[in-house]
Amino acid sequence: MRYELYYWPSIPGRGEFVRLALEEANAEYDDVARRKGGLKALMAFLAARDATHSSAQPPFAPPFLKAGKMIIAQTANILSFIGAHHGLAPAGEAGRSWTNQLQLTIADLVDEVHDTHHPIASSLYYEDQKKEALRRAEDFRAHRMPKYLGYFQRILQRNKDKSYLAGAKVTYADLSLFQVVAGLGYAFPQAMAQMAKRYPRVIALHDRVAARPRIAAYLASERRLAFNQDGIFRYYPELEG
Length: 241
Hints:
It is built from nine helices and four strands; from the N terminus they run E-H-E-H-E-E-H-H-H-H-H-H-H. It is of the alpha+beta class. Helix 1 packs across helix 6 (about 170-185) and helix 6 (about 170-185) crosses helix 7. The radius of gyration is 18 Å and the shape is globular.
């Protein structure tokens, strides 16, 4: 099956978590909005979503994945589908549920990262909520970052095989945690430099994922979008404190 991924063409965003899983799975896919005329196709899909006469089960927002006749939305839901079909999740129900739980925790962290620069509303510019962002980022650096990273550090310590979050084999949750660590390093380089000393297993997992052959090839390719000031992970020097 050749998949179609629908996401915004110029930012890594939540779509990047899906791209990483597809790349590690060696799955064939089209990043629809990044091809010629693709953004128009994405917008047409969203327009059809909003049509009141539509009988489909429309996605709320990108990313969403077209798999045959299925349209699968929500990052964690997409990853659960990819994991089950491409060996990026444990075979048993308990393991699949645990991996999904880890992914949902990562999703919570991603939302909190976004709110460091947009704590009031996504519809406002950063400059319109800068005062609130300074306070939010201070709390995030001091309390929320260590809380989340400490949690994943303990998960890795508890595993008998400490290679990955769910055991000896890589899952989509590991790929997503890699992306979060990379994003935090972009958005909060000073804080992450300090966190690296406190949570070495999390950093080691990031490095282990980056070294995987398919991921390494992807990171070196033009398919990998750089972090920028329009995505979830943004660098504002003043938010470093």
